[in-house]
Design goal:
The protein is an all-alpha fold and 206 residues long. It has nine helices and no strands. The chain has a single domain, classed as Tetracycline Repressor, domain 2. The protein is elongated. The chain starts with 19 loop residues before the first helix and ends in a 6-residue tail after the last helix.
């Protein structure tokens, strides 16, 4: 939930193991949806990229909306893996918070970076009943809860409120990094992140 941006997101939605064909379709869809947008990429374009028939595509994804939701579920699964790896590497919560800030700052500098998939989805899919919106909500709620847990274990007084502020900082880092000079945005964003964390911890930050 805390972790990185990647276009290699072909994990199964929770509770369902994808068939090799479903995985192949997600493999084809992921870079297209990330690079060009959820609305701009048609089902026909994904079908052509995956090299499957329409019948096969719709057997695994009855609608394009279902494909978009699966795409975000896959991205969420990858971020959850990244969270586990970051926390395992940094068991101290203060160190973990700083490592998270550094990881976020590094993302806009990565090759092929085009912003946060979840922020893009929220922008492109204003309809709250779209199945992908539930994935966006779970991502943001889960991210905030995970950061609040780190803050609480580090000794922050109002961990939930600080986590919500850090979510705003996160969004700013990832969105501004997509629109401006990545290196300068990364440095500025990390400085804000560290200031918020230090303020919450009474100056105790790495």
């Amino acid at each position: 939930m805390l972790g990185g941006v990647t276009t290699d997101v072909t994990e199964a939605p929770p509770g369902r193991a994808p068939s090799s064909v479903a995985r192949r379709i997600l493999d084809a869809a992921t870079p297209l949806l990330y690079a060009h947008g959820l609305r701009a990429v048609s089902a026909d374009r994904v079908i052509a990229a995956a090299g499957v028939s329409k019948v096969t595509f719709y057997r695994h994804f009855p609608t394009k909306d279902a494909l978009v939701a699966a795409y975000l579920e896959s991205w969420l699964a990858r971020e959850q893996e990244a969270t586990a790896a970051l926390l395992a590497e940094h068991p101290d919560p203060v160190e973990a918070l700083d490592a998270l800030g550094r990881a976020l700052a590094d993302q806009p500098c990565a090759p092929g970076y085009r912003g946060c998939a979840f922020v893009h989805a929220a922008s492109e899919l204003p309809d709250e009943v779209h199945p992908a919106r539930a994935v966006v909500t779970r991502h943001r709620d889960g991210w905030t809860a995970a950061v609040a847990d780190l803050l609480g274990r580090a000794g922050a007084g109002d961990a939930d409120d600080v986590a919500r502020r850090l979510l705003v900082v996160r969004d700013g880092m990832l969105v501004a990094g997509d629109a401006a000079a990545a290196a300068g945005t990364a440095a500025a964003g990390l400085a804000v992140w560290r200031a918020v964390v230090a303020g919450a911890l009474g100056g105790r930050a790495t």
